[in-house]
Amino acid sequence: MSSISIHQPQYLPWHNYFKKMKKADIFIILDTVDFQKNGLQNRNQIKTSNGVNWLTVPVLKKKGQKIYETKIDFIILCFGIVSNLAGSKSNCL
Fold first, then answer.
1. What number of other Cβ atoms are within 10 A of residue 70's Cβ?
2. Is-contact 44 52, C-beta < 8 A?
3. Which of 44, 64, 74, 76 could pair with 58 as two cysteines, CB 3.0-4.6 Å apart?
4. pLDDT at residue 78, as a whole number
5. Is there a contact between 27 and 7 (Cβ–Cβ < 8 Å)?
6. How far apart (Å, rounded) are the C-alpha atoms in residues 78 and 90?
7. 14: number of CA atoms within 13 Å, CB side?
8. What are phi and psi of 6, to 5 degrees?
């Protein structure tokens, strides 16, 4: 008998996500459901020496959009996040 596992894609998934993949005979990435901005699809928490911080991938979002339709907002990614974190100009473009 085969096992099938289904999960939505996540940004920086936790280790059990990969265990679930390995254990299943068939693993399906469910990306045909609505995208939830500021959920685990485009952000996640990390532990730092200053406590817990959020890492967020900026996205272009429209109401009712599916996960597979979601695009990264490279303008914000390059000029907002990188310049803030590095304290200098970004050379993304």
1. 20
2. no
3. 76
4. 72
5. yes
6. 6
7. 5
8. -125, 135
Q: Supply the pLDDT for residue 87.
A: 54
Half-sphere exposure of 68 (CA within 13 A, CB side): 5
Side chain identity at 9, as an amino acid letter?
A: P
Cα separation, 21 vs 27, whole angstroms: 6
C-alpha 74/C-alpha 7 separation (Å) is 26
Nearest to 55 by CA among 81, 89, 23: 81
- Residue whose entry in the numeric block shows the structure tokens 């996960």: 67
Task: Specify the pLDDT at position 28.
Answer: 96
Structure tokens at 41: 């699809």
Q: Is the pTM of this model over 0.85?
A: no
**Taking the chain (93 residues) in consecutive chunks of 10 residues, what is each chunk's mean pLDDT?**
91 90 95 89 90 89 92 78 53 50
